């Protein structure tokens, strides 16, 4: 009986191994992430387990393909030291209200989110192209909610971006503060926030608490908390 059980286990393991070999790479959690992997749980899993070296290599590729434009930044010390961060200038054709500092994971996740989700969703919901993302910044050496007894914020390591508004090629400007409660823009903004779950560790918006009434907080901690 034990011999039969062992044989069954070996057959199942062998079948699984063969199956993974023939899976498309974007469905196989054990193959390296590529910039062409579609959004989903597998891509999210791969983003979360990227090594620093793999992240840097993918960010170089993303720059070459004009998904993002970044500039190298020297490491800094102080109360909130920064290591291996970049300055993000734009996301391809999507401009920024200003450049921002980002860890490699934040920069890469943002590049994929904008190209795979933000731009297509804007076309689908708003009938226009996304022209610019306005933000409140990424790096700030502080604790969560500025509380002295709280842990360091994701902003203290340039691991989060606060988005406050979007501009469309039609000329329209939509803020999170006003757009979230507008019937004409809430479905689009809600879809953007929901889609961020596949790229960031957390995506927090106006429904989370009053502190996020005017922006989307997109951070790298956690694993897909969006609300």
Report the sheet-strand fraction. 15-25%
H/E element string?
A: HHHEEEEHEEEHHEEE
Largest β sheet strand count, sense and barrel closure: 7 strands, mixed
| Count of DSSP strands | 10
What's the shape? globular
N- to C-terminal separation?
Answer: 51 Å
Structural class based on helices, strands and sheet pairing: alpha+beta
Provide a quick synopsis of the model:
The chain is 35% helix and 20% strand.
Task: Describe this structure as you would to a colleague.
It is a single chain. By secondary structure, this protein is an alpha+beta fold. The chain folds into two domains: 1-29; 32-226, no CATH class. 35% of the residues lie in helices and 20% in strands. It has helices spanning 2-22, 41-48, 52-64, 104-126, 176-179, 186-195, and strands at residues 69-72, 85-90, 95-96, 100-103, 130-137, 160-168, 173-175, 202-204, 216-219, 225-226. A hairpin with a 4-residue loop joins strand 6 and strand 7. The termini are far apart.
Identify the notable features of this structure and list them briefly.
single chain, 227 residues, alpha+beta, 3-stranded antiparallel beta sheet
Compile the SSE list and pairings.
Elements: H1 2-22, H2 41-48, H3 52-64, E1 69-72, E2 85-90, E3 95-96, E4 100-103, H4 104-126, E5 130-137, E6 160-168, E7 173-175, H5 176-179, H6 186-195, E8 202-204, E9 216-219, E10 225-226
Parallel strand pairs: 3-5, 8-10
Antiparallel strand pairs: 1-2, 2-4, 5-6, 6-7, 6-9, 8-9
Helix pairs in contact: 3-4, 4-6
């Amino acid at each position: 009986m034990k011999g039969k059980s062992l044989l069954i286990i070996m057959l199942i393991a062998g079948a699984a191994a063969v199956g993974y070999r023939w899976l498309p790479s974007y469905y196989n959690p054990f193959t390296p992430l590529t910039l062409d992997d579609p959004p989903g749980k597998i891509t999210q899993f791969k983003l979360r387990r990227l090594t620093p070296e793999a992240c840097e290599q993918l960010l170089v590729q993303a720059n070459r393909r004009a998904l993002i434009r970044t500039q190298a930044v020297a490491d800094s010390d102080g109360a909130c030291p920064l290591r291996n961060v970049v300055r993000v200038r734009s996301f391809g054709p999507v401009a920024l209200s200003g450049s921002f500092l980002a860890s490699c994971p934040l920069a890469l996740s943002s590049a994929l989110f904008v190209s795979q989700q933000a731009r297509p969703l804007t076309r689908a919901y708003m009938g226009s192209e996304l022209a610019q993302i306005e933000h409140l910044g990424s790096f700030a050496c502080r604790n969560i909610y500025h509380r002295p007894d709280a842990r360091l914020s994701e902003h203290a390591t340039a691991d989060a971006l606060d988005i406050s508004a979007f501009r469309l090629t039609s000329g329209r400007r939509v803020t999170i503060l006003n757009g979230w409660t507008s019937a004409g823009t809430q479905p689009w903004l809600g879809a953007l926030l929901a889609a961020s779950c596949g790229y960031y560790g957390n995506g927090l918006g106006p429904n989370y608490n009053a502190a996020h009434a005017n922006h989307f907080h997109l951070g790298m901690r956690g694993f897909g908390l969006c609300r």
